Amino acid sequence: MDGAPRTARRRGRPGAHRRRGGARRRYLRAHLADLALNAGWTWLFSRARRPALATAEAVLLAASTADLARRSWVLDRRAGAALVPYVAWTAFAAALTAAIARRNPR
């Protein structure tokens, strides 16, 4: 083959490379937000000793992780499936943090 079909595929959708670049940036932002929420929960719960605020942070983290798993699933099903235990863990951590906050009012 002379490479024509492959070249034609690349040229078939104008701007496709820009759309993929935008999707990558959105995915990276979602991943960084998830990491920041994870660090925020650790700081609020362990260092600041604010379990009520850590509960709200944990709920946001669980939602962010579920969104990250969904985004990963769209790009690569194995990567999305690999994040499912992390989604379950963050949901459990939110419930556990809420229980701790209820038992330790300020």
Biggest pleated-sheet summary: none
Q: Mean pLDDT across all residues, rounded?
A: 87
Calculate the terminal CA-CA distance, rounded to whole Å: 73 Å
Total helix count? 5
Percentage of residues in helical conformation: over 70%
What report would you give on this structure?
The structure is a single chain. The N and C termini lie far apart (73 Å). The protein is an all-alpha fold and 106 residues long. It contains 5 helices and no strands. Helices cover 86% and strands 0% of the residues. 20% of the residues are buried. Helix 2 (16-47) packs antiparallel against helix 3 (51-75) and helix 3 (51-75) packs antiparallel against helix 5 (84-103).
Concise description?
The chain is mainly alpha-helical. It is built from 5 helices and no strands.
Q: What is the secondary structure topology, with strand pairs?
A:
Layout: H1 4-11, H2 16-47, H3 51-75, H4 77-82, H5 84-103
Helix pairs in contact: 2-3, 3-5
Labels describing this entry:
mainly alpha; elongated
